[in-house]
Structure prediction request, 120 residues.
Amino acid sequence: MPPRQAPSAPRAGGAAKLQALQQAVLILGFVRPGSLVRRYMPCGNPACRCMGRPPRLHGPYHQWTYKVAGRTKTMRLSEEQARLCQDWLRNHKQLKRLVRQMEQLSLRETDRILGAISRR
Ligand SMILES: [Zn+2]
Prediction:
């Protein structure tokens, strides 16, 4: 017969869930903050198709933007660079999601553990 769990031991489900979240972080790869925007623009030449009716704008142009300390950083990217960035940006979003889930899970579990121990 397996030994009974002490009241302060984490629920089996909680520990397993935490481990699954940790594993998911390990396999993420590069995590790049910020976001990608894709835009079409006129060049300003009045004779160009982008100034016609209807206008046929140039692009798409890819731009990565990132806000750091209240300032927005931007970088122009090629199609290929944008594709790479997309994966890293997705990883970053996923990392943030995983961290949030870890926090929520840990809050629940540590509340339970603290609640099971009498105050001295
Ligand atoms: Zn043009």
